[in-house]
Specification:
Elements (H helix, E strand, L loop, with lengths): L2 H5 L4 H7 L10 H35 L7 H19 L1 H10 L5 H35 L10 H18 L1 H5 L1 E8 L4 E8 L7 H32 L9 H36 L8 H28 L1 H12 L15 E2 L5 E2 L4
Antiparallel strand pairs: 1-2, 3-4
Length: 356
């Protein structure tokens, strides 16, 4: 997704030189530039610092504690890895693009940043789809899905996810380039990182397809899975006997995944709507309010890369204790207690686990 030119319109130099329907006298471009130069570094700086340390902590906590290894936690690590990549490779350069009013990093990094933004966005949302499938199988088909819900199968699913995402996102890299534009307001020539339409892909088609494939379709799948899951959680009709503790634990795990999905959907909704409206020629950057709204929408979308560790800390006792130990370097919580009861023997003589 071309955040720099299609969502936030790259930078204010590009805005002022391309909004031909708006007279420079009617728009306070200097005021917009000033607002952007102090607003973006503050917001993006908070996102970068919080996202880097939070997601790194999630990865370390899970990988260094064998008691936390489970299918759901492996997917949580994958989600944190995608968010960490975004924070490292995308946020600083997008912020610099806003502040400098031009793209100073060259063609290769222009294409790389836009490519990685799309890759990490796809990786995040479809990791949530995998997490929802994992929860669906654990709740609705706890016995029959046991052979599928293993660490080995989960690692294969994660590998396939990244392979597909890295492949299908390649057109994004080839559709971006550094374009030299003349600013009619300042009478300057600047280099901008922009989407360049070609015979295979134009901007409107790309924005529409990205909206459907990265937001609408996966959320429809997730919603369908959770509707079925909620029905099963509150009307236990699977014939599988579970203690009240097991039921509470299963609901806690599912609640955490639901909240993570809702947070992602909510934070990405404004910027996805702007993408859709732009593709339909229903949104023009012609006022200070719209500029600020787009910056805020992009900031909310970027916030999704750093909010998950906070959700884990609030909703998972297991993660909260692990975070506490990692931050304080103490042995107070040497042994971690799972959000679910310990494994138990089933009537089939196998170990039953449903949590993380």
């Amino acid at each position: 997704m071309d955040f720099n030119s299609s969502i936030s319109s790259s930078n204010i130099s590009w805005l002022s030189s391309n909004e031909s329907t708006v007279s420079p006298a009617t728009v306070d471009w200097d005021g917009i530039r000033h607002t952007v130069r102090w607003l973006v570094p503050i917001f993006f700086g908070i996102i970068a610092v919080t996202g880097f340390f939070g997601n790194l902590l999630v990865i370390l906590v899970v990988m260094l504690n064998k008691t936390m290894h489970s299918t759901t936690n492996l997917l949580i690590v994958n989600l944190a890895a995608a968010d960490l990549m975004f924070v490292i490779f995308c946020v600083p350069f997008t912020a610099t693009d806003y502040v400098t009013q031009y793209w100073p990093f060259g063609t290769l990094w222009c294409r790389s940043v836009q490519y990685l933004i799309v890759v990490t966005a796809y990786a995040s949302i479809y990791t949530l789809v995998l997490m929802s499938i994992d929860r669906f199988l654990a709740v609705v088909h706890p016995i029959r899905s046991r052979m599928l819900r293993t660490e080995h199968i989960t690692k294969i699913a994660i590998f396939m996810l990244w392979t597909v995402v890295l492949t299908v996102s390649l057109p994004v890299a080839y559709s971006h380039d550094v374009v030299v534009e003349h600013n009619n307001v300042t009478n300057e020539t600047v280099a901008l990182c922009q989407f360049t339409s070609n015979d295979l892909l134009d901007l409107d088609t790309f924005q529409m397809s990205f909206f459907v494939s990265s937001y609408l379709l996966p959320l429809m799948i997730i919603s369908g899975l959770y509707m079925r899951m909620i029905m099963r959680l509150w009307h236990q009709g699977s014939g599988v006997r579970m203690s009240k503790e097991s039921q509470r634990g299963r609901k806690r795990v599912t609640r955490l995944v639901v909240v993570v999905v809702i947070a992602f959907a909510s934070l990405w909704l404004p910027v996805q709507l702007i993408l859709l409206l732009k593709a339909l020629d229903m949104y023009e950057m012609n006022t200070m309010t719209k500029v600020v709204l787009q910056i805020m929408a992009q900031t909310l979308a970027y916030t999704s890369s750093c909010i998950n560790p906070l959700l884990y800390a609030f909703l998972s006792d297991n993660f909260r204790k692990a975070f506490y130990k990692a931050i304080n370097c103490s042995s107070r919580y040497q042994n971690y207690t799972s959000d679910l009861p310990p494994p138990r023997k089933t009537s089939y003589g196998r170990t039953s686990t449903t949590g993380f």
